[in-house]
Design goal:
By secondary structure, the chain is α/β, with parallel strands linked by helices. Helices cover 29% and strands 18% of the residues. It binds S-adenosylmethionine and iron/sulfur cluster.
Length: 324
């Protein structure tokens, strides 16, 4: 799969559900979100069929995401089916971690090799405030459980929001001193509820790195975790077991090397996280038609770069809907 700008597409992020047990302030509204009707959501065998048809076109790596993918009862079935598809070399999971202690071993056995866990704070009151739910999530315990379950690498995703958790940058970065985890600070993307005040709340990655450098006594550029082919830039503190990364959709775009497309829970292929570039795969899939022509059409429309800053006044779907 090569798009019109010569980018080779080998990475698919599959959103298996739009539901979530959190309502993170930067991701989902407290209420009023229309759930995708159950019948429109792709079944495990339909997801398997999409992957089976994309693998011969060059699909190699997959990430299972959402919404919160661990809420889907058949998530392990989905993973074990796609793990058997020829050509698929790597299946990762993005999760808020709430169910990971209970499900880690089963997910690992099904074929998930690595996990990204969202951790925006180490303070229980703040975790509950950001997620708008108090589910007694204990990040450090969950990270240890993920390491013990055999996931490698274990990455931490932290969305930095000015005035909300920017005072915890140093303590989150310090996790990498004692744990073999890769903490990635993500610039807030002004979508959903954040589309109005969002830009003022973005903390640019240069500011994050300066704070980390100050607190940890100097950090050095690092190659980052194995298979980290994504957009993060990595650093390491002297003697640290893990790395610190920044993901910068706002201050530096990385669209030129974008190697990914997304499958929404209702079977649409999205070629850019932002904007409306999507092609319906569910209708041809359910009609038994080959998907290759539809995939080709989607890739023809993959934009050169996202228009997030131009589009910021509303209209963008929350990341829980698009499989962030
Ligand atoms: N529920 C899972 C989780 O939280 O990791 C997977 C889905 S979530 C949409 C995927 C990632 O998108 C998370 O790391 C989350 O922090 C990030 N995300 C959601 N909304 C965002 C925003 N407005 N700006 C930056 N990152 C965002
Ligand atoms: Fe749910 Fe993840 Fe969005 Fe938070 S970031 S509301 S955990 S989908």
């Amino acid at each position: 799969m090569i798009d019109q700008f010569g980018r080779s597409i080998e990475y698919l992020r599959i959103s298996v559900t739009d539901r979530c047990n959190f309502r993170c302030v930067y991701c989902m509204p407290e209420r009023g979100l229309d759930w995708i009707p159950r019948d429109d959501i792709l079944s495990a065998s339909e997801i398997h069929e999409v992957v089976s048809q994309l693998a011969p076109l060059g699909l190699r790596r997959i990430r299972i995401t959402g919404g919160e993918p661990t809420l889907r009862r058949d998530v392990c079935d989905i993973v074990s089916r796609i793990a058997r598809v020829d050509g698929v070399t790597d299946i990762a999971l993005s999760t808020n971690g709430v169910r990971l202690e209970a499900m880690g071993t089963e997910l690992r056995a099904a074929g998930i090799t690595r996990v990204n866990i969202s951790v925006d704070s180490l303070r229980p009151d703040r975790i509950a405030a950001i997620a708008r739910r108090d589910l007694k999530f204990e990040p450090v315990r969950v990270l240890r459980a993920a390491i013990d379950a055999g996931f490698a690498p274990v990455k931490v995703n932290t969305v930095v929001v000015r005035g909300v958790n920017d005072d915890e940058i140093a303590s989150l970065a310090r996790l990498t001193l004692d744990l073999p985890v890769h903490v990635r600070f993500i610039e807030l993307m002004p979508v959903g509820d954040m589309s109005d005040s969002g830009l003022e709340r973005v903390v640019p990655s240069d500011e994050v790195l300066a704070a980390v450098d100050d607190a940890l006594g100097g950090i050095l550029p690092d190659i980052g975790p194995a298979l980290g082919n994504g957009p993060a830039r990595y650093y390491r503190a002297p003697g640290g077991l893990g790395t610190i990364g920044v993901i910068t959709p706002i201050s530096h775009t990385y669209c030129a090397s974008c190697n990914r497309v997304r499958l929404t829970a209702d079977g649409r292929l999205r070629t850019c996280l932002f904007g409306d570039h999507e092609v319906d795969l569910r209708t041809p899939l359910r009609a038994g038609a080959p998907l290759a022509p539809f995939v080709a059409r989607a890739l023809e429309e993959k934009p050169r770069e996202h228009a997030l800053l131009q589009l910021r006044t509303g209209g963008l779907r929350a990341l829980s809907q698009t499989g962030g």
